[in-house]
Amino acid sequence: MAEGLEVLLLDDEPIVGKRLKPALAKIGCNVEVFEDPKKALERINQKEFDIVVTDIRMDEVDGLQVLEHVRQSSERTKVIMITGYAMMAVAREAMEKGAFDFISKPFKPDDLRKVIAKAAEALGSNIQSEISETDGS
Amino acid sequence: MSIILISSDHYETCRAVAQQVAESTGYALLDRKILGEVASASRIPEPKILKSLEPSSSTVGLPAKVRNRALAAIQSAVMVRLLDDKVVCYGLAAHLYVLGVSHVLKIRILCKEEERVSLMATERNVGIEKARKLLKKQEAVQKRWSLDVFGRDETNPSLYDMVINMSQIEPDEAVNAIVETVSYRKFQSMTYSIKCLKDRELSIRVRLALMEKYSDVDVTADGATVVVRTKALRREKRKKTENIRALAGQISGVSYVEVHAGRDIFRQAAESA
After folding, report:
1. ipTM score of complex
2. Any idea where the domains of chain B sit in the sequence?
């Protein structure tokens, strides 16, 4: 059911996209990776993604701005925030602005897969079984 | 889902509001009824467990080691139950140790002062002015207790998400305000906030286990990694570090233990005197 789940992954650290793209591809996500938030915003204007995964602390455009942009352009898209500088106030702000979930770095690819599964479920899909089959990969 | 922690300057008011909030939300109520279980699990008599939660101006209180272990046992039991989510908790001092968890809504209820004075006058069989003085003294003791034991002043409003002054708000209105506020998205649980709670649950569980042998430990957890800070004399440092590592390493959920043993300057000074 995860086939065709369109995911945009934005993080200014190249290693994050490099590591997470194959992890999400294994559960059937089509992942587009961006390191430049401005380019990511352009792409969001062109295409409605099912899920946007974005870092919070980035130069020029931060993750909360990306979240607001997605909320304006698509009600349906689930936004998952990831950050190495997690704090209660930021987490609450993100949730209030409409984030689907909030994860602190470092995390394991499987942690993100679980959140993606929850988001997929909220979108009417179910990738639970795919996760358990690929667990630990 | 969320957790609601309610504290107050008056226990009965706190209980009444907490019970109504639990009824309105359908959340489980977590209160001092768990202290019997805490006593059995920790092998500390229940009266001592209860006494650890009650500030006293008397010098004949619980010994600090017993009090700290009793409070750690309460904290551990509370944290486990908070992991269940959808909980209204009061009367267990959780507002002083459940910190930095975004899906925990912290409420402070301020009871009508005149009502408290009147209650104090009846309880102690004294006049209104005497009762007012006694109340002020009680408040000072309570404040000092929160600072001494948890390093936080519970009368500081910045510790809470919402402070409700019952002299201006009816109980039903207070309950409605709490129920409405907890529905805000910012108080909903998320992967990060659940991890924060799990980390705190593990850290207090490890601390409680270590306290049987070492009372001077501070523990933090991040995932399955636990950091223990303690103090030791130079000659005992290695052995103490190894013992702590071994003890903590046996606890469920712990995969890596780091121990930082600083110099115990007070014991060192005492021994060299």
Report:
1. 0.89
2. 3-187, 213-272
Closest residue to A102, CB basis, from B101, B187, B191: B191
Which residue type is seen at B68?
N
Global pTM?
A: 0.90
Quote the crossing angle between the two packed helices B11-25 and B171-182, to the nearest 10°. Answer: 50
pLDDT (tens place) for every residue of chain A, 137 residues total: 445 799 999 999 999 999 999 999 999 899 999 999 999 999 999 999 999 999 999 998 999 999 999 999 999 999 999 999 989 999 999 999 999 999 999 999 999 999 999 999 999 887 753 554 444 33
Kindly list the residues from chain B whose CB atom is less than 8 angstroms away from the CB atom of residue A91.
Answer: 102, 190, 192-193
Q: Which CATH architecture has domain B3-187?
A: 3-Layer(aba) Sandwich (3.40)
Answer yes or no: same fold for B3-187 and B213-272: no
Closest-CA distance, B83 to chain A, in angstroms, reads: 17
Quick check: is A129 in a domain? no
Q: Is residue A131 part of a domain?
A: no
Which helix (H) or strand (E) element contains residue B199?
helix B191-211
Among residues B100, B102, B98, B119, the alpha carbon closest in space to that of B11 is found at: B119
Spatial neighbors of B5 by CB under 8 A, at least 6 apart, are B89, B90, B94, B95, B98, B104, B105, B106, B107
**Smallest Cα distance from B98 to chain A, Å:** 12
* B138-141: long-range pairs with CB below 8 Å, 24+: B139/B9, B141/B55, B141/B56, B141/B57
Distance CA A77, CA B110 (A): 42
A95: nearest CB among B185, B195, B196: B185
Query: pLDDT tens for residues B113-135?
Result: 899 999 999 989 999 999 999 99
Number of domains in chain A: 1
Tell me which residue range forms the domain holding A61: 5-123
A21: CATH: 3.40.50.2300
> Is the CB of B185 less than 8 angstroms away from the CB of A115?
no
Domain-embedded: residue A21: yes
The strand pairing partners of A79, in sequence order, are A52
Structural domain includes residue A72? yes
Instruction: List the CATH code of the domain at B213-272.
Output: 3.30.70
Q: What is the mean pLDDT of chain B?
A: 93
Q: Who contacts B180 (Cβ-Cβ below 8 Å, separation ≥6)?
A: none
Parts of chain B with a pLDDT under 50: none
